[in-house]
Amino acid sequence: MTFHALVPAAGFGARMGQELPKQYLPLAGQPMIFHALSTLCACPQIETVFVVLSPEDTQFKSYDLSRYGDKLQPLYCGGATRAESVTNGLVAAELESDDWVLVHDAARPCLTQAHLFKLIEELRNDDIGGLLAVPLADTLKRADGEGRVLRTESREQLWQAQTPQMFRAGLLVRALQQCKDVTDDASAIEALGLHPKLVACDTTNFKVTYPQDLLLAELLLNQAGK
Ligand code: CTP
Ligand code: MG
């Protein structure tokens, strides 16, 4: 059984509102992207870590990448959306159809070896694959379009999707080529009528999206000694 990771990192980070793309913002001593790349490269089960960059990216290769050796493979084929970046990366990586691929956002720097171990153990014998996710904790309100509550929605059986999302490479490319309008990989698999497995994670594996998220990520990473 072969496992690879693929990290889409070709976004701009519009919601972060800074000049530097989000994945390169300084975080606990290094650009954000290197936290997830280091964790994935240190995972013994993972053979290769592909990182999908924008064709215009000049930043990535300005850093010292020697500690990663050949395990880290940059691919300059990012697209206009996350789904397009992942699809282009999977095609360029030329993986075997049966290889497992763990797709992980560059913007989730607090991923740990324990998260990875759990995901791989729970899915390695699964027919479809799945994703790390967290059951919703807050009460959910649907708005009426004018900033007032229309109604309270049940949170029963609702989960927040995280990454990595782990699928067979062949199935995932096929799914994404057929279904381009998705914000995560599992959605494309679902569009084929399949049911990815939810692997319970915790909220520390959150996505850094807004400026205030940087502070929380920094606290977690410093506490973990990174
Ligand atoms: N991503 C990508 N290609 C794109 C858009 C996003 O590879 N065209 C990557 C981002 O770099 C990030 C991951 O997908 O690692 C998750 O996306 P998100 O958190 O939405 O990042 P951005 O799209 O950069 O941020 P925003 O939506 O605020 O612009
Ligand atoms: Mg985005």
Write a structural description:
27% of the residues lie in helices and 24% in strands. The protein is α/β, with parallel strands linked by helices and 226 residues long. The chain has a single domain (3-223), classed as Spore Coat Polysaccharide Biosynthesis Protein SpsA, Chain A (Alpha-Beta Complex). It has a seven-stranded mixed β-sheet with strand order 5-4-1-6-10-7-11, sandwiched between helices. A two-stranded antiparallel sheet has the order 2-3. A two-stranded antiparallel sheet has the order 8-9. Strand 2 (26-27) and strand 3 (30-31) form a beta hairpin. Helix 2 (82-93) packs across helix 4. The longest helix has 13 residues, at 211-223. The radius of gyration is 17 Å and the shape is globular. The two termini are 30 Å apart. It binds cytidine-5'-triphosphate and magnesium ion.
Defining key terms:
Spore Coat Polysaccharide Biosynthesis Protein SpsA, Chain A; seven-stranded mixed beta sheet; two-stranded antiparallel ribbon; 11 strands; binds cytidine-5'-triphosphate
